């Protein structure tokens, strides 16, 4: 790698970490002028210095020598320095490298599903949601579960959930050469996590190169692109026809509005804000009743009294099972080391938890020396 290329990577890592040259230089025992020369390519950086820089900016050493996926680069080039979300950027880039490596080594061919036409209206977003259910092998009506594994197996979208903290983005997604990846902020409640993932599914199916969603519920106008994606996500999780039937059934059982809200939220695994919005947009709830539904909180007594089954989909850390199985298969075949397997599993496993590797027979040596 040329000095200026390495220097650019050091500068990018520093900016993503939100550090000034003076701050980073002080942390790694360099003069600010020396660090500036490293970044502009006029000074060599030693292995020890680079190791200190990597630790200070929370990057792996090899990151400095491997160009970022094009989608990440193009996204960052559109931002002012430090304007992007460092936690999401760093994680989605790592996930992109991992998924592409595993798919290539495992010889895993992803299903080519093509791209869905972008919905031009809220009504088209509803139609697109029904098409997405078909692609994922989900029935047209009723709740949908096991989103992470369905998306990986059926449409090649590998979704991961990690606790990124309350101040980080809700989710991000990126197209790969084959398939795509999504990162969901596991710090959110389960309903909001599912909404965020359904939203990213829309970005993926409609072929948005790379996007970071800071507030999934925020709109950019009544019929704006993000508003249409929000509508797609709600329609995907809560089909209008089934919602109407379930609401009629609970109403006929003389359930009060609070009980109805708790039951429907649990059934469809959505948060109350999403439920209220969905009931309103399909004409099943008045605005005043919708405000009440948003205020409802499911308590422990509700779980007991209504015989609810708490669900924790996308609880962090969460990795797609098809991806995890591929990593373990590579490890069992000795294609990758234990350390590499743990890295590919995002440090969610320990070496002791990895499966035992079958011992090769003595005559297997000839396969390696013949």
Secondary-structure map:
Elements: H1 3-16, H2 21-27, H3 32-40, H4 47-57, H5 70-77, H6 86-105, H7 122-135, H8 147-155, E1 157-162, E2 171-175, E3 180-185, H9 190-205, E4 210-213, H10 225-237, H11 240-252, H12 257-268, H13 272-281, H14 287-295, H15 300-305, H16 321-332, H17 338-344, H18 365-369
Parallel strand pairs: 1-3
Antiparallel strand pairs: 2-3, 2-4
Helix pairs in contact: 1-3, 2-3, 6-16, 7-10, 9-10, 13-14
Provide a descriptive summary of the structure in words.
The protein is 53% helix and 6% strand. The chain is mainly α and 370 residues long. The protein has three domains: 1-67, 434 Repressor (Amino-terminal Domain); 70-236 and 312-370, no CATH class; 240-305, no CATH class. The protein has a four-stranded mixed beta sheet, with helices on both faces. Helix 2 (21-27) packs across helix 3 (32-40) and helix 13 packs antiparallel against helix 14. The longest helix has 20 residues, at 86-105. The radius of gyration is 24 Å and the shape is globular. It starts with a helix and ends with a helix.
């Amino acid at each position: 790698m040329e000095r200026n290329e390495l220097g650019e990577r050091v500068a990018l890592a520093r900016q993503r970490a939100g550090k000034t040259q003076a701050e980073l230089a002080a942390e790694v025992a360099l003069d600010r002028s020396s660090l500036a020369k490293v970044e502009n390519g006029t000074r060599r950086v030693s292995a020890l210095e680079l190791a200190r820089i990597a630790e200070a900016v929370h990057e792996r050493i090899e990151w400095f020598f491997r160009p970022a996926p094009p989608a990440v680069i193009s996204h960052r080039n559109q931002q002012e320095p430090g304007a992007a979300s460092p936690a999401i950027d760093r994680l989605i880039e790592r996930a992109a490298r991992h998924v592409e490596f595993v798919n290539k080594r495992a010889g895993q061919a992803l299903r080519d599903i093509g791209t869905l036409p972008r919905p031009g209206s809220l009504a088209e977003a509803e139609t697109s949601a029904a098409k997405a259910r078909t692609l994922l092998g989900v029935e047209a009506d009723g709740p949908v579960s096991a989103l992470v594994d369905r998306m990986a197996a059926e449409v090649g979208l590998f979704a991961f959930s990690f606790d990124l903290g309350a101040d980080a983005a809700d989710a991000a997604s990126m197209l790969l050469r084959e398939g795509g990846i999504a990162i969901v902020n596991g710090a959110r409640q389960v309903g909001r996590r599912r909404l965020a993932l359904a939203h990213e599914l829309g970005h993926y199916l409609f072929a948005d190169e790379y996007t970071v969603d800071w507030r999934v519920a925020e709109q950019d106008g009544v019929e704006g692109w993000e508003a249409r994606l929000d509508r797609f996500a709600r329609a995907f999780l809560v089909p209008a026809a089934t919602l109407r039937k379930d609401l009629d059934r609970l109403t006929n059982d003389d359930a009060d509005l609070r009980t109805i809200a708790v039951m429907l939220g649990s059934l469809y695994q959505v948060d109350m804000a999403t439920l209220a919005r969905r009931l309103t947009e399909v004409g099943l709830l008045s605005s005043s009743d919708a405000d009440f539904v948003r205020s409802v909180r499911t308590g422990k007594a509700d779980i007991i009294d209504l015989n609810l089954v708490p669900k924790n989909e996308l609880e962090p850390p969460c990795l797609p099972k098809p991806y995890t199985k591929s990593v373990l298969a590579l490890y069992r075949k000795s294609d990758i080391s234990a350390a590499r397997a743990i890295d590919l599993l995002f440090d969610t496993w320990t070496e002791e938890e990895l499966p035992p590797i079958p011992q090769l027979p003595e005559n297997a040596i000839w396969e390696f020396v013949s």
